[in-house]
Amino acid sequence: MVLASCTPQPATAPEITPAEPAELIIFAAASLVGPFSEIGELFEASHFGDSVLFNFAGSQALAQQINEGAPADVFASANQTQMVAAIDSGGVAAGTQQVFAMNRLVVIFPTDNPGDLAALLDLAKTGLKLVLAAQDVPVGRYSLDFLEKTVADPAYGESFKDAVLTNVVSYEDNVKAVLAKVALGEADAGIVYTSDISGAAADKVDWLDIPDALNMIAAYPIAPVTGSKNLELAQAFIGLVLSPEGQAILAAYNFIPVE
User: Fold this and answer.
1) Please, what are the domains in the chain?
2) Structure pTM?
3) Which residue in 2, 52, 54, 56 has the most C-beta neighbors within 10 A?
């Protein structure tokens, strides 16, 4: 009679199903196109199979889309106002937002300087064609705040703000549209962020600095969206933005790092 072996048989390893590749959807302010595109590539390189999809637009438009239930995983705004709007609607959980960069205003003009700009006072010259972002766009609001500050400055006087606003020929939906019109020579001047005069744009425009006393420092907050289907990846992306690598990329585009 043959007895069955009592030697224990090796257990069969459970079959591991690889995780499905995920698509991370980032809603980001238009001024972040350059640095976030680079950060997205860096993120994909370290998350094999996962991809990053960006929706770049004015922060006010992005907040509205989130409020209306558009699918998104991360929201990066150019100001606190639109982040608060997303929080108030339930699109972002209060307390999850973090400031990841700062920015400041600058006056730009085409390199051939058709408006003959030499100082900020020249923005009030009769006939100058000025382009600003719309008031509900962060950079548009900051631009109006800058002009409001000049009212109390004796170097500019009470009439300066109104004279400048008289020269506005269009109000654009986002900061990149302002940059494009000036770079193409469709306007004599515009107000954008310092981060916008980087890359190819730096060869097409010159600029006038706005002194600290009149400038507006923009704080950029980022947060996961409450309806995210990829919350762990969303947190990983935010971590990369706040990391030394992410901050270095932002600094290369003339943003002011927070780290």
Assistant:
1) 23-102+219-257 (3.40.190.10), 103-217 (3.40.190.10)
2) 0.83
3) 52
